[in-house]
Amino acid sequence: MASHGIKDRVAIVGMGCTPFKEHWDASADDLAVDVVGDTLDSAGIDKDTVDAWWLGTAQSGMSGITLAAPLKLNDKPVTRVENYCATGSEALRQACYAVASGAYDVAAAVGVEKVKDSGYQGLNAFPIPTDGTQRTLTAAAMFSLVAPAYAQRYGIDPAELRRTLARIASKNHANGARNPRAQFRREMSVEQICKMPEVAGMLSVFDCAGVADGAAAAVVVRAEDAYDYTDRPIFVKALSMVSGNASGLLDPEYDYTHFHECEAAAADAYAQAGITDPRRELAMAEVHDCFTPTELVLMEDLGFSARGEGWRDVEAGAFDLDGDLPVNTDGGLKSFGHPVGASGLRMLFECWLQLRGEAPEDRRIATADRGLALTHNLGGYPGEMVSFVGIWGSERG
Amino acid sequence: MRGIISAAAHLPHWRLSHAAVSGVLGTGAGRGSRTVASYDEDSLTMAVEAGRRALLGAPSAPSALWFATTSPTYVEKTNATIAHAALRLPGDVLAADAGAGLRGTAGALRSALASTDPAVLVLAGDVRTGPAKSPDESNGGDAGAAVLVGDGTTGTGPGAVIAEHLGTGSATREFLDRWRVPGELRTRAWEERFGEQRYAALAAEAWSRALDAAGVEPSQVAAVAVSAPHPRVAAGFTKRLAKDGVESIDTLASTVGFTGAAHPAVLLASLLETAEPGQVVALAALADGADVFLFRVTDAVVTHRERVRTLAEQLATGDDSLPYATYLSWRGVLPTQPPNRPEPARMSASAAERRLDWKYGFVGSRDHSSGALHLPPARVSFEGGAVDDMEPAPMADVTATVATFTVDSLAYSPSPPVVFAVCDFEGGGRLPVELTDVRPADVSIGMTVEMTFRRLNTSDGIANYFWKARPVHGVAPVIDTTSGHTTAEGND
Questions:
Q1: B385 Cβ contact partners less than 8 Å away, ≥ 6 residues apart
Q2: What confidence tens digit (pLDDT) does each residue in A246-257 have?
């Protein structure tokens, strides 16, 4: 029993991504129609060419009909998947496996989320009937628990850590400012961010992902067929998913300075892809920067920094656009907001652009010739999360 | 020997100084302060807190539980059954409400003393409020109290009688003094002098009946606790007693306030904190009539005081910095804008009933093979993976240490911000849980907290009760769950 992966067996041959913003004028149906249209055009196919569909949406609809109805798909299998904030990656993963299994020639993964119709700020979960004892904290507060724990463990002055977190937000805002699809396109200095009022622990709203509607999608085919669709396909090197068992909420051993699920998913993905030194082998990484402490800890969980050294690497600019491993070159959740079903596919869209040399010049990475990109997408909270890691390559090995 | 086995009170952490009120309303500053139930406390949670203390170390469960309040969470639905669940009493214990009148506590106490049940627990709690400037706002206080009555065991340990019942006298005559229509904020009152005179007569009658019943002379009575809905009524009877050379104890008017249905039981707890073994003491409860109870304090009272968190300790550790506006918003007198977040969904009755011991009793589970503690209880162990091999782990009386924490200004709360901490329990077990009775700036990694029963929110009229953690102030009696031994620890 082992995780074998499907390295170089399937490829992405078409992608689309809507602007992420407050789409007051667009419904989930509209976003789906728009993004699927762009994606099919990108692959040069029509909707009937796609044999099977996976829809990732957390809260914008249930069942495959949510996608089949607006697109008027004809007698196709359409599956709606949900896996917290990793929903988009989960849809992609299912589509890749479906093609790798030989069941279908062409599959599509579509992530759509209409967040801004709730009438509330932030993301809000479906109320599931419970005994009433569950905590009702915001996600920002749950992730803010990491900051004091990290500062305490590594002996960092909270003011210093505050600057490090602001450095992460500032970097992502700078990248997002260079991305026309991003929700927020304004640069923010470290000083400006440090001055913002705290809303959850030491976090201000500028430590939090934005809230936006959006959609992204990908067409998946067998690797050997990839060049029939495009000159520059992106090959799947690794797909890894780990669902935590929430023991971090029970076990005093868990110290809130790392995410075990992300570490485990990364280890599995690197094994599948044959990566031993991610910091130097990867051209770039798109990671789940839902809150600034999350990105900090992920640098260590994904093996980009040694334990306790992530904050130093952040300060040194290692993950800047021109750093030795650019992270969240599109601006991340910070600049894009987090339409749950779409985010995982939006991350892949940036890899698609960068590895194909299509990213606009002002945010094009110098490391693209390394040929490998990583997407990391998580859902849940410290102590109880699901984590996805995907590795994508411009060459079939 | 029948009498009182245990008595305890719960004073909420927050205090409203009369100066804070006069600063806003411009009326003359009263002396001292009153206790204020936090936004997450109500008559029931405060009674439960007192009940936990009264039952601490008790060798056996009572046969019946009575709950008295004039500010019930529910009508139609019985409130006492929630206390029954929170105190983890067995299924054969009766739990019933004493009714919504002020006299319910004295009634339950008298019934308990006359009962043939081996032990009866009388709980009382009240949140005293009213419109701004009302007498109930300025003279009132919030508290819970518990009195365990029974035949008692011999010796001086938990379960022994600390005050032997000598006799009771009652006097009843219908007269209209104070009244409140259910659901209304304001308690109305007839001209005070009318009630004052009726109470004076009734108290005198009940007093002489109790002395007769006990065969005791006034000169033998060392101290009387007088509970009355108006300060002047209490003062009148105190004066009358003083003529016979009988001393009355502090009515707590300037430190706690009149705590309604809880007050007779609060004062009884206070009386037993200071009385010496061998002394005869009395409780005079004046509320739509008069009931006087005479007791002889036993040697067991000394160890009881060491076991129970006393009123004196609680009075010494409260926080009297509560702004008047916060007090008003907690009581709903001053509505404030909540965060723009969805309100919590109502709890599911069936889901709550399935996890009764967890939700109300704070009972987790401990895996036999690994010893791993699970909060909430689980079927499969996170350590070792054993299935259905756990025993209940009662954790309500175990202290915990803060591993990390946050302050959430965005989450929905009846009183934002939410202060929240990952709490690691002494001897194992973790729960990320809300903190209460704390100012955000006072939380730190490593601080010691204890569990307290609270109302998290109310939705669709359903009060959602669960536990929160709060800083340990002063000395907290803590039961070592393995040995039943009582230890003490504190933050300051």
A1: none
A2: 999 999 999 999
Q: Which fold has domain A10-117+213-233?
A: Peroxisomal Thiolase; Chain A, domain 1 (3.40.47)
- For B343, nearest residue in chain A (alpha carbons): A136
Residues of B in Cβ contact (< 8 Å) with A127 = 342, 345
3-class DSSP state for residue B134? coil
pLDDT digits (tens, 9 = 90+) for A131-145: 999 988 999 999 999
Structural contact between residues B43 and B73, judged by C-beta atoms closer than 8 angstroms:
yes
| Among A82, A85, A27, CA closest to A54 | A82
Nearest to A138 among B373, B410, B465 (CB): B410
Chain B positions in Cβ-Cβ contact with residue A200 (cut-off 8 Å):
406-410
Q: Which pLDDT tens digit goes with each residue over B46-104?
A: 999 999 999 998 889 999 999 999 999 999 999 999 999 999 999 999 999 998 999 99
Domain assignments of chain A as residue spans, ordered by start: 10-117+213-233, 139-209+235-393
Parent domain of B458:
341-361+396-489
What CATH code would you report for A139-209+235-393?
Answer: 3.40.47.10
Q: Is B253 exposed, middle or buried (0-12, 13-18, 19+ CB in 10 A)?
A: middle
C-alpha pair distances (Å), B345 with each of A114, A126, A141, B467: 22, 10, 20, 18
Tell me if B88 sits within 8 A of B359, measured CB to CB. no
Check residue B157 and give its pLDDT: 87
pTM: 0.94
Answer whether A135 sits within 8 Å of B433, measured CB to CB. yes
